[in-house]
Design brief:
The complex is a heterodimer of chains A (386) and B (455). By secondary structure, chain A is mostly beta strands. In chain A, 8% of the residues lie in helices and 47% in strands. The longest helix of chain A has 22 residues. In chain A, 53% of the residues are buried. The chains are: A mainly beta (386), B alpha/beta (455). Chains A and B meet through strand 18 and helix 2 of A and strand 1, helix 3 and helix 4 of B.
């Protein structure tokens, strides 16, 4: 009986791999295996807000502390009891030169160095506000996105710089995320669009929704799709920056804007919590799943639990099966079921580890793995008309 | 002869048929259920409405605030383990903070609702308790209040705040922390335009005020050279923006937009500039204490132009300060306190008895908002996701409270049109009905019943 079950499982896995290989010929490689970290294996309860990879170490910011995963195991969970500034951890960045870990929390900014936390708060430092959403390290500088503006902390001198509506073109000072290139700093501002700081020229350039109205998108590729920006990601290879909003996805190539809504693309939801990008890939962390956009082939792939729409949502997640939706440029969609899935459909952020991805969800951290070695064109016979 | 009789009969039949048809058509037109435009926006106020159909419109579909997160899956709180069912409040309460003029009545309205709910047994025998935080403007320190409410006080929902910057911050934080918010005092229309599915807002926002004032000034009074004088704070900036957009779309770009800093005593520089422009009307977007001084100084300079103002000016304070100079002032009003509606009368008496002050719109909307929230908690149980689901059931539905009739759109924003008031003989005289006269049929949600309620 057990042998037959094992044989059935092996056969199912082979079939999925074969389907994934044929679906993924020339398109993006598909993540068909998911390992989830939940309270069942020592991971903190509640939402996972962010994830950052540092070699073989994975840092996850959760509603109940900062979790460190090494070699597939939850090694440690840091909380305010350990000296962390706040238990709700929104962002993590690792200083490649020093190994220091910078942690943005709803309680201030923390620096984890030499096994100890040092905290920077509104009352003890130049940090603009204790609601810290984003953090990024650029050489000696740490950039911090807070609810009351952007900070730059000089780790050599200890000096803080602050930019907000009083000294920079901020419509609103509520910053959500920060992304770095060699020459520029990109800041996603809630209600204020995208602000770009030129490191050589020391000036800010705003990018905003040109129609100026919250309730409309006047033209599809009009400019930034909406001013309520939730995330920002610069792509070092394509030199494009991508902004996630609760009203769709926007990319800017330096000349033209490329906007995507669910109604005109394979994006799972217009409500996007964060965006990440590398190579030709743009990843949108939406509330209806994780959507990957292959910018070169214009193919969209969405990952989520298979029966996530079930009335008993808890059952849907526990069931464990996943679904992959592939949307081709002509709008044709195909669907593949997998035995494992991300921990939840509500995706908050993502990080890359080689070919693997780590995904922050509303109910745990998920490690996505490509099982097939083969990359290629999506098999036309496997697609269905929309 | 017979032919003549048949002819007359035929004519009568045709006449009767024609009149029946036209009556049916009239009736059909009257009963037609028109889709409600976003924010109950008059046609002339639609952005780019005269030029182009937009590629996409937000906020006009049922799933605008759809939520697919995991909050409903969090195990429900166990009532028997609790001494109180905690609800957070963030309000400007320090009397040195000018916004406390709105925050204190707001807190009192919420307290009265909680007191009454507890007298009726609380939540299955466990009393509701307010966990109150002062909204301090300095450095946004109070923005951490929602974190404290969540991690230390374990609130199930919160009410607040007045300042729209604070409310936006709470909203941003609650997207992560997942706490339902009832916002009963913010005028900022963008608070409900974020698609964050954790907020219900019942206070008439700047959109409703801007539409009503622009319609009255430009369409009814036919004024042409209107200027705006507004506070340099967020309240002034956002309200003014709505009014300016309305004016532009009616082809009456205001001739001047002058500003003043909150707390300013002398407005002579701005008023002289306005006088030189030859304006035929002035709109003030600010608070009552400054509006009172503006009116006084304006009349002293011999400027007799009609003055219009935002709802914060609709306060006895403006008359106390301006005296006779306030005569003729027309303001947007969040509520008509002269109504004889029994709910309002009972609330007014109870409020007066308990707090020895007349309840204003901030008290009334807070009372209504807290009642909506308490109803949602009782219905949904101790689960924030389910409480928000219960609040979400107000989408495209009305609520009759002490403040009048509220109607919530797909963004859970109250889009019921507002009333206007005019100062006459030292008192505000309120328009007999809400402003529903801007072209086209009365929206279905504001037909007879609602209009009756608003009186």
């Amino acid at each position: 009986m057990r042998l037959r079950l094992l044989q059935s499982l092996r056969l199912a896995t082979l079939l999925i791999l074969a389907a994934a290989s044929s679906l993924a010929a020339q398109g993006p490689a598909l993540y068909t295996r998911w390992i989830n970290y939940t309270p069942a294996n020592g991971f903190p309860e509640g939402e996972v807000y962010c994830v950052t990879v540092d070699g073989n170490r994975v840092w996850a910011g959760t509603a109940n502390g900062l979790a460190l995963i090494e070699n597939g195991r939850v090694k440690r969970v840091f909380t305010t009891a350990d000296g962390l500034a706040g238990d709700a951890v929104m962002s993590v960045a690792v200083d490649k030169q020093t190994g220091d870990v910078w942690v943005g929390t709803f309680g201030g900014l923390s620096r984890y160095s030499g096994g100890r936390f040092k905290n920077y708060t509104n009352l003890s430092s130049g940090v603009a506000n204790d609601l810290v959403y984003g953090v990024a390290v650029q050489g000696r500088y740490v950039w911090v996105a807070t609810a009351a503006g952007v900070n730059r902390f000089d780790t050599y001198t200890g000096a803080w710089s602050i930019w907000n509506e009083t000294n920079a073109p901020f419509n609103e000072p509520w910053c959500y995320a920060v992304s770095l290139s060699k020459k520029k700093v990109y800041v996603g501002v809630w209600g204020g669009g995208v602000l770009v700081y030129d490191l050589a020229g020391h000036y800010w350039k705003p990018y905003r929704d040109p129609d100026g109205s919250m309730e409309t998108v006047l033209y599809r590729n009009q400019g930034l799709i909406h001013n309520i920006v939730s995330g920002i990601a610069y792509n070092h290879e394509t030199h494009m920056f991508w902004a996630s909003t609760y009203f769709g996805l926007s990319g800017f190539d330096g000349r033209n804007w490329h906007n995507y809504l669910t109604k005109d693309s394979g994006l799972a939801s217009d409500f996007i919590n964060a965006v990440q990008t590398h190579g030709n890939e743009v990843w949108a962390c939406t509330q209806k799943g994780l959507s990957e956009f292959d910018y070169k082939t214009k193919i969209w792939v969405t990952y989520r639990p298979a029966n996530w729409r079930a009335l008993d949502a808890a059952k849907a997640v526990k069931d464990g099966r996943g679904e992959i939706i592939v949307t081709r440029p002509d709008g044709n969609k195909s669907k593949l079921e997998t035995p494992t899935s991300p921990a939840h459909n509500y995706i908050l952020n993502l990080a890359f580890q080689g070919k693997d991805i780590w995904v922050a969800t509303a109910q745990g951290l998920s490690h996505g793995i490509i099982q097939s070695q083969q990359k290629g064109k999506i098999n036309e016979s496997s697609t269905n008309g929309r | 002869m017979k032919a003549i009789h048949y002819g007359i009969l035929g004519c009568l039949v045709l006449t009767f048929y024609g009149s029946v048809q036209s009556a049916l058509a009239r009736n059909a037109h009257r009963n037609r259920v028109d889709p409600i435009p976003y924010a109950n926006m008059p046609k002339w106020a639609v952005p780019f409405g005269r030029f182009r159909k937009p590629y996409h419109r937000w906020y006009v579909e049922p799933n605008t605030l759809g939520y697919d997160g995991a909050a409903r899956e969090v195990p429900d709180g166990i009532l028997t383990h609790l001494k109180t069912v905690n609800i957070g409040v963030l309000a400007p309460l320090d009397r040195n903070n000018p916004d406390s003029a709105y925050g204190i009545p707001m807190l009192h309205g919420a307290e009265l609702a909680v007191e009454r709910a507890n007298a009726r047994g609380g939540n299955d025998g466990i009393p509701f308790a307010l966990r109150v935080h002062d909204d301090l403007p300095l450095w946004g320190a109070s923005w951490m209040a929602i974190v404290k409410m969540d991690y230390d006080q374990h609130v199930w929902a919160m009410l607040g705040s007045v300042n729209s910057a604070s409310t936006h911050i709470e909203l941003r934080a609650t997207l992560k922390l997942e706490i339902p918010i009832i916002d009963t005092a913010t005028n900022d229309p963008t608070v409900t335009e974020t698609r964050i599915p954790w907020l219900l807002h019942n206070f008439p926002d700047d959109r409703q005020q801007g539409y009503a004032l622009a319609d009255y000034i430009f369409n009814q009074l036919k004024l042409r050279h209107v200027a705006v004088l507004r506070a340099t704070n967020r309240y002034g900036r956002l309200g003014d923006a709505v009014f300016l957009n309305c004016a532009r779309r009616l082809s009456h770009q205001p001739v001047l937009e002058a500003k003043y800093s909150p707390g300013e005593q002398s407005f002579s520089t701005q008023l002289r500039m306005l006088r030189e422009q030859g304006i035929d009307g002035l709109v003030i977007w600010g608070d009552a204490w400054e509006a009172g001084r503006i009116l006084k100084q304006m009349r002293a300079l011999g400027m007799k132009q009609p003055v219009f103002a935002s709802s914060r000016v609709c306060s006895p304070q403006v008359i106390e300060i301006a005296g006779r100079a306030a005569e003729g002032l027309v303001t947007a009003c969040a509520m008509n306190p002269d109504r004889t509606n029994p709910k309002w009368v009972r609330f007014r008496q109870a409020f007066l008895g308990q707090f020895h002050a007349e309840p204003d719109a901030y008290a009334a909307y807070a009372y209504d908002g807290m009642n909506i929230l308490i109803g949602a908690i009782r219905k949904a149980g101790l689960n924030r996701g389910k409480i928000m689901d219960a609040l979400r059931q107000y989408e495209m539905k009305g609520y009759r409270g002490v403040a009048g009739y509220a109607f919530f759109d797909y963004t859970l924003n109250n889009i019921a049109p507002i009333t206007l008031g005019r100062v006459r003989n030292g008192h505000f005289i309120y328009w007999p009905e809400r402003r529903t006269d801007w072209g086209g049929p009365v929206p279905s949600f504001m037909r007879a019943e609602a209009l009756q309620e608003s009186r």
